């Protein structure tokens, strides 16, 4: 592999790493948001007929009175159903678990990429340093012309003897 091919390969690795890191960041943010939701749900328990500050947007709150502890929950596909706090917490816990599994998969992909990068670097270094030999056999020298000390009978340098 020449230097230009290696550079292109490393650019691809870099893009893949950045994509996975962005996905990991989104997963972490979603987990944090769901954890905050679980805390908020816990605080709602026993608050029927109490005033609370309800967030209606980013950093915007309104005073509201809790008239019931059942929540209206989006169960997907634009479908909303009433659920008690405990069932809603179970849904969020399941979502957190699934996101945790996704995070593990993404981290595994990142590890595989790092291993592939290491392997590519080692292969390139080996190809750049010429051939290496881990043997000596019968004292005959090979004639590969690269200042090689190997024994040609058991040589794995890639040159023809």
Strand-helix topology:
Blueprint lengths: L2 H42 L6 E7 L2 E6 L5 E4 L5 E4 L1 H44 L33
Antiparallel strand pairs: 1-2, 3-4
Helix pairs in contact: 1-2
Helix count equals 2
CATH architecture of the largest domain: Orthogonal Bundle
Order of helices and strands: HEEEEH
Mean pLDDT: 84
Largest sheet: 2 strands, antiparallel
Low-confidence stretches at least 5 residues in length (pLDDT < 50)? 132-141
Distance between the termini: 24 Å
Computed Rg = 30 Å
> How much helical structure, as a percent, in the residues?
40-55%
Q: How many distinct domains?
A: 2
What is the approximate shape? elongated
Total strand count, please? 4
Query: What strand line-up does the widest sheet have?
Result: 1-2
Strand content: 5-15%
Commentary on this structure:
- By secondary structure, the protein is of the alpha+beta class.
- It has 2 domains: about 5-130, Helix Hairpins, CATH 1.10.287; about 135-160, no CATH class.
- About 55% of the residues lie in helices and about 15% in strands.
- Strands 1-2 form a two-stranded antiparallel sheet.
- Helix 1 (about 5-45) packs antiparallel against helix 2.
- The longest helix is centred in the middle third of the chain and has 44 residues, at about 85-130.
- It is elongated and about 75 Å long.
